């Protein structure tokens, strides 16, 4: 499970508050995962554990899924602050 330590931070990095940055964030995470899988070639157990965790996070719509934004998920109150969106 040594290779799992490089995959877990992907699940813990929060999604940006600014909706304009969601596409850049998802592309960065996607390229990170693709390059990790091609370079490090993690074991099957680590890959399955990571994919199961990613599926559960995205399926539950907790709001931290980097693949897409759930329509039912509400944005944090800070997302509507013009000072944050303007930056």
Automatic annotation (TrEMBL):
Domain of life, per lineage: Eukaryota
Gene Ontology CC terms, in alphabetical order: membrane
Alphabetical UniProt keywords: Membrane, Transmembrane, Transmembrane helix
Subcellular locations according to the entry: Membrane
Ranges annotated as spanning the membrane: 20-38, 45-69
A Pfam family per the record: BC10
SMART domains per record: BC10 (SM01396)
Family as reported in the entry's similarity comment: Belongs to the BLCAP family.
Task of the protein: Acts as a tumor suppressor; induces growth arrest at G(1)/S checkpoint and apoptosis via RB1-dependent and p53/TP53- and NF-kappa-B-independent mechanisms. Modulates expression of genes involved in the regulation of proliferation, cell cycle and apoptosis.
PANTHER family: BLADDER CANCER 10 KD PROTEIN HOMOLOG, BLADDER CANCER-ASSOCIATED PROTEIN
Protein name: Apoptosis inducing factor BLCAP
Origin species: Austrofundulus limnaeus
Gene symbol of the encoding locus: blcap
């Amino acid at each position: 499970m040594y290779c799992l330590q490089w995959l877990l931070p992907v699940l813990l990095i929060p999604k940006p508050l600014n909706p304009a940055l969601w596409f850049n964030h998802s592309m960065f995470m996607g390229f990170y995962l693709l390059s990790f899988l091609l370079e490090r070639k993690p074991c099957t157990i680590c890959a399955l554990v990571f994919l199961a965790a990613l599926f559960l996070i995205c399926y539950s719509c907790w709001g931290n899924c980097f693949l897409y934004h759930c329509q039912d998920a509400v944005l944090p109150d800070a997302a509507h602050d013009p000072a944050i969106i303007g930056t």
